[in-house]
Amino acid sequence: MERLAGRVMLLSGLPRIGLAIVAGAIGAFALPPFGIFATLFISFTLLVWLIDGSTGNPAGGIGSRLRSAFAIGWLFGFGYFVANLWWLGNALLVDAEEFAWALPLAVFGLPAYLALFYGLATALARAFWSDGVGRLAALAAAFGVAEWLRSFVLTGFPWNAIGYGAMPVPLMMQSDAVLGIFGVTTLAVFVFSAPALLGTRKGKIVGLSAAVLLALAHVGFGAWRLNVADERLAVGESKKTTIRIVQPVIDQAQKLDGTNRSSIFEEHLRLTASPLAEAGRRPDIVVWPETSVPFILTENPDALARIAEVLEDGQVLVTGAVRSEDAGAGVAPRFYNSIYVIDSEGQIISAADKMHLVPYGEYVPYESILASLGITEAIAMPGGFTAASSRSLLTLPGGALFYPLICYEAIFPDEIGSDIERTSAILNVTNDGWFGATPGPYQHFQQARLRAVENGLFLIRAANTGISAIVDPFGRVVQGLGYNQKGVIDATISGDKIENWDNSSRQWYFWLVVTIMSVIAVSSRLGFNSHKN
Questions:
Q1: Average pLDDT over residues 340-351
Q2: Which residues, 6+ apart, have CB-to-CB distance to 248 below 8 Å?
Q3: Prediction pTM value
Q4: How far apart are CA 143 and CA 2, in angstroms?
Q5: 11 DSSP 8-state letter
Q6: CB within 8 A of 32, min separation 6: which ones?
Q7: How many CA atoms lie within 13 A of 482 on its CB side?
Q8: pLDDT at 48
Q9: Cβ atoms of residues 275 and 306 within 8 Å
Q10: Helices assigned H by DSSP within 94-193
Q11: What Cα–Cα distance (Å) separates residue 238 from each residue in 112, 399, 412, 459, 530?
């Protein structure tokens, strides 16, 4: 290992660039649908050795070393994000004649931007680099902060944070309830980097022992929590609700074709009225995916009447739909990506609008600034949505509340407010049909199910083409439909939120972990400098 580490450190030129990109790309296999978390040990071991060799120009001082480390981190991040986000280009091919020109921006442009955060992480870590376990702590703290920044800078896009690779199955998801995704990421980077000590000897016993203990604690805590899961869920047995999720599998090109609206709507209704499974309980609530209704419901009373015909007395439909709002005389109406709750008489009894819109997909950020610079063609889009100013909870008959997360709102853990404490389930409606049979829908599902673990609530997830599922508060799939499987899910959930850590506690623990890692890094750096002197 020492010989291999030495060869990696001494690489220069194209071989060094290529290895940094490949190291990042290897780590992408830790994410769904693969879930091979061991690949991150390879990725971060190589990254540590590459940073060890980031000496820069000897005459350039610390600035040169930081620039060299930043370049390695950026190349690593570019490889990682291209390998795990290439499928975004599929959305542009749905209407290829109109949007294929933007394919390079989606496949390479976004990864190039996201990689800046990893470059920042490696440069920051390099500033506190030492020759022992301290450098692993520096890298862990820096990556934790970088992933946290990535969750909100320029509207945020925390997709595929490193910590998700450490949580492929429920046994390994439970730490997320305490530390949150950014705390898990911080400790995961330390553990995944530990094999690098085999190639440099110093701090090997301490570092590897700490990594093994953290890994055992991660798995052991998961085993303990799952062991008591059923007992804790039994507390809510008295408040049961049966949910039917409709997964219609409507091709995205058909959804965009206005001539198919009636048949698409009728297909949703047909699935809603599907017979119950043997000895099944009649659903209390039927859930359709994001933008399932292919027209403005409030302008189409016949559609509401058809829904009332299909629903049995007392049943409720929860569906994604586009909502329009009059903006005043002479002003174009505003449109919202929304969820409606409709009762068995065809009345809309509750609604919620999407707050966090997809940049360049549902709206154009900084449109006025771009237009003032003369950049108009690239930002033009037909219509677009308006973001809700605040999140509304969905109220169901009997007073139960659902916490609505529309599409990729489910990837922003820190945007979930304290009002989730009053709800009985998380509702995530989405349309991943844009991305086809790629890793995208699988990655999205994993991130959504971890919101259930963090908040101690059942997750009800309806996706047009999949993956739809009922997930319990411990991340276990109660029942689900895989990608591109047309049909319905009937499952019963309990209505009580299990006792859990809240988001403010998870944030506090995250910063505590970052602080501990930073103290180790700084102490090691001071000792390293003292030893050199």
A1: 94
A2: 264, 267, 268, 271, 288, 289, 292, 464, 486
A3: 0.92
A4: 25
A5: -
A6: 168, 439, 442, 443, 445, 446
A7: 4
A8: 97
A9: no
A10: 96-99, 103-104, 110-127, 134-150, 176-193
A11: 51, 16, 32, 19, 64
DSSP output for 448-475: HHHHHHHHT-EEEEEESSS-EEEE-TTS
Q: Residue 183 CB: number of other CB atoms within 10 A?
A: 24
* Alpha carbon distance, N-terminus to C-terminus of the chain: 28
Helical pair 61-85 and 110-127, crossing angle rounded to 10 deg: 140
What b/e readout covers 121-140, taking b as 16+ CB neighbours within 10 angstroms?
A: bbbbbbebbbbbbbbbbbbb
What tens digit of pLDDT does each residue of 109-154 get? 999 999 999 999 999 999 999 888 999 999 999 999 999 999 999 9
Q: Kind of pairing, strands 285-287 and 316-325?
A: parallel
Q: Give DSSP secondary structure letters for 283-343.
A: PSEEE--TT-SSS-GGG-HHHHHHHHHHSPTT-EEEEEEEEEE---TTSPPEEEEEEEEEE
> What is the rounded CA–CA span in Å between residue 466 and residue 441?
7
Q: What is d(CA 459, CA 409) in angstroms, rounded to the nearest whole number?
A: 14
Strand 401-406 and strand 425-430: the pairing is parallel
Residues annotated as catalytic are 290, 354, 407
* Contact by Cβ (8 Å): 352, 339: yes
Which DSSP category does 72 fall into?
H
